[in-house]
Amino acid sequence: MSFEATLASRTVLRVGILQVELDIPWARSLKDKRSVVKSIRDKTRRNFNVSIAEVEDQDTITSIVIGVAMAGSDVKYILGALEKFKESLSDWPDARFVDAQVEVI
What is the distance between the alpha carbons of residues 23 and 61, in angstroms, rounded to a whole number? Predict the structure, then answer.
């Protein structure tokens, strides 16, 4: 089978990207903020098959911006999984949900 035929028969890779902004008004230091980010990251790794990183405002004490990515071939599944993740953050006890944007490429 040629390279072109192999490409034509493959499923298209989709990547879902979620950016979530959270507020932690009680935080008084970057150490407070890092503990919240660490707890979110640890729980995410246990419960969701996604990659996660703090992507903005690393030096802002009361704000967290998290980027989440998930790869797959089923857009509905990716969107559903990212929505579940977003819902889990909207109920997070140590942070207040502010905003979220999702995109699939």
Answer: 9
CA distances from 97 to 38, 42, 46, 83 (A): 16, 18, 21, 13
52 vs 55: CA distance, rounded Å: 9
Residue for token pair 């030096």: 59
Q: What is the residue whose two structure tokens read 């790869």?
A: 71
Q: Which residues of the chain have pLDDT under 70?
A: 1-9
Q: What is this structure's pTM?
A: 0.83
Query: In whole angstroms, what is the distance from residue 39 CA to residue 9 CA?
Result: 41
pLDDT value at position 23? 95
CB 14 within 8 A of CB 92: no
